[in-house]
Amino acid sequence: MSEQLLLGIDIGGTKTAVAAVRHDGTVVALRSAPSGRGGAQVVDVAVRLAREVADAVSGLGRISAAGACMPGLVDPRTGLVRHAVNLDVESLELSSELSRALGLRVEVENDVKAAALGAHHLGPRGWGLHPDVTSAASGTGETAYGSGDVGTLAYLNLGTGLASAVVRGGVLVRGIDGAAGEIGHLPVGGDVVCSCGQVGCLETIASGSALARLWPPSRGGGRDPFAAAAAGDAAAAAAVDVLCDGVGLAIQLLVLAAGAEHVVIGGGLTGLGEPFVEGVRADLRRRGRSSRMIAALDLESRFELVPASVPVAAIGAALLPGRAPGPFLLTDELAG
Ligand SMILES: [Zn+2]
To answer: Taking 50 as the threshold, does the pLDDT of residue 132 lie above it?
Structure first.
């Protein structure tokens, strides 16, 4: 019998990934390609991959609903995306463009928020059961992930920048203009001017751009900083200390301010792997040593990395249709 499948489109800063997903989050097909640049190309790449995925699963079922996510200010109600700077998109009617091309309504969301939904749905630690999606990437092999009630979950994205999103009781916390979770732009000290215009934002110590500034190619950077630090490179060691301190601070912030029971870390910096996890654990232990209150929170046990093979944002995007986008509080409504 033909089943109904969901389509999830994740338009990232470098790569676009499209997955066909069952309602329980099981990935049945996955395709990816470099993202386009500019609105028209961004949509073209997404539509091409979406058609490939639909073809790949045509023997299994039909796509009954679709969702898409991308960086920038994404309004799920109007379907409009603004300021996706890394994709050369100033303004894009993402929902209507994709809906028209694919012939079905496409819900949209910010990529970090979609990834938080995906991580919440899969459940932290559940994906360890079936982390390999290579069969799904090459055909229509199935990949199942764990699922369950995980309480309040924060997703921390460490890419070029730092952003987070919180899912509480199964609902995305949005805040004013979707700004809830933009903890990368909390000033925490230092004198580095942030891309947002403030000075000393968390993003200036805990992100890919921070690492590139702290340990630039001119001083031997551009390689694995943990390996270089272990081999005795003092500049690399100083850079990873700052990075791990910043990520530890981000985790502490998400637990204390957002009530996160789990912090799931995704994004490009997760490629640093186990030494990075160990560095962050060491920082969290250090925080616990100076405070019994912090030690009692057991921050060390609350975070983990998303395995690189799990397309968490595409899965989250696929789950957008049919769910409430979360409470809105928009500045234009406050003004009006
Ligand atoms: Zn900032």
So the answer is: no
In the chain, what are the domains? 3-145 (3.30.420.40), 153-305 (3.30.420.40)
> What is residue 324's predicted lDDT score, i.e. its pLDDT?
57
Name the helix (H) or strand (E) containing 6: strand 3-11
Give the pLDDT confidence of 36-52 residue by residue, as tens digits.
Answer: 999 999 999 999 999 99
If you measure from the C-alpha of residue 21 to the centroid of ligand 1, how many angstroms do you get, rounded to a whole number? Answer: 35
CA 201 / ligand 1 centre spacing (Å): 5
Say if CB 163 and CB 182 are below 8 A apart. Answer: yes
Query: Amino acid identity, residue 237?
Result: A
Length of the chain: 336
CA of 3 relative to ligand 1 center, distance in Å: 45
Ligand 1 geometric centre to CA of 163 (Å): 10
Tokens of 245: 């301190």
Ligand 1 centre to CA of 187 (Å) is 7
Exposure class string for 217-250: b at 16+ Cβ within 10 A, else e: eeeebeebbbebbeeebeebbebbebbbbbbbbb
Q: In 3-state terms, what secondary structure has residue 277?
A: helix
Q: What's the confidence (pLDDT) of residue 325?
A: 55
CA 331 – ligand 1 centroid, Å: 20
What is the model's pLDDT at position 74?
93
Expressed in angstroms and rounded, the spacing between residue 266 Cα and the centre of ligand 1 is 20
Residue 16 buriedness (CB in 10 A; 0-12 / 13-18 / 19+): buried
Sequence-ordered alpha helix ranges (H) in 151-233: 208-214, 225-230
Q: Report pLDDT for 179.
A: 86
Q: Which two tokens stand for residue 312?
A: 């968490």
Ligand 1 centroid distance, CA of 186 (Å): 7
Rounded to whole angstroms, the Cα distance separating 313 from 84 reads: 16
Mean pLDDT value of segment 189-206? 96
Tell me, in angstroms, the distance from the centre of ligand 1 to residue 204's CA: 7
Tell how far the Cα of 227 is from the centroid of ligand 1, in angstroms.
29
Between vectors from CA 317 to CA 313 and to CA 322, what angle results, nearest 5°?
150
Give 185 Cα–ligand 1 centroid separation in angstroms.
4
